[in-house]
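Write out the 3D structure for:
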Amino acid sequence: KVQGHRPFNAEAPVASLVEFNVTPEDLVYCRNHGPVREFDEETYSISIKGAVDKELQYTIPKLQASFPIVQIVAALQCAGNRRNEMGAIKPVSGVGWDSGVIANCKWGGVRVRDVLAQAGVQPGNAHVCFASHATLCQDDEYYGSSITLEKALDLDSDVLLAFEMNDEPLTAEHGGPVRLIVPGYLGARWVKWLDTIIVSPSESPNFYQQRDYKILPPTVTSKDEAKPLWSKYPSMTSLPLNSVIGSITITSPTSLYIKGYAVSNLANVAGVDVTTDGGKTWHDARITYQEGKWSWTIWEAELEGVAESGTVECRARD
């Protein structure tokens, strides 16, 4: 479903998404703040600079030859996932999204910590800024974000410079030839068409780090009201526990087969429950897929003796 044409933004139906443990490329959502551009993988390069002992520049082939290749499965989720449901309760700014702005993929690349170790991080710095000057942007001269240096250097955080998705070269539509992967963090931090890494004492000054992707008080109802508050609230990192019903099949007049996904960005989902009576009775769903600590969860439930009409709801536990 196309949610915007310029820039292009689109998502797949959730019923299709939950049929695959690992999301095929043609079902991976597209989220853009500007036009998509294609680049030559052989000549495209990333610069590492800022508070480092030596500035470095790598092409994709040089990255692949210089560092160990790592593969992880991780769910990429837009901060606006289910925004249309939120908008039904209270108006929300941003692209209107349903529940399909999520993709569970296998990412291949090199660890950011390995690249930073090669450059040599100078003491007294707390952040790593990532930028893409590759294409025009809606709200700034380039797209940028940052994460803490601690996060970037943490082996268990699996922060990657990825040039593969699902064992294939990363396509331009999804940030190729190289993008940042920050498992557990919202997609806004996973910078596409990455060309610059800067070690810095402060966060990225970019619009998308400082004046977007933050949670402001519910009393804020306009951009003017938000202006004096942006600097007072932290940038979003991980997203909350979430569960979504993808499909419901009536298997008999009194039975249902339900399938969906759940995601917890800090740990695996421990369980999913479903109800058809407004929460009076909850039934355990069966988890059919999890892979590693960063993947989404696919679940299913078969319910017997349900009423002829009602609403199916789900909840996840971590």
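The chain has a mean pLDDT of 96.
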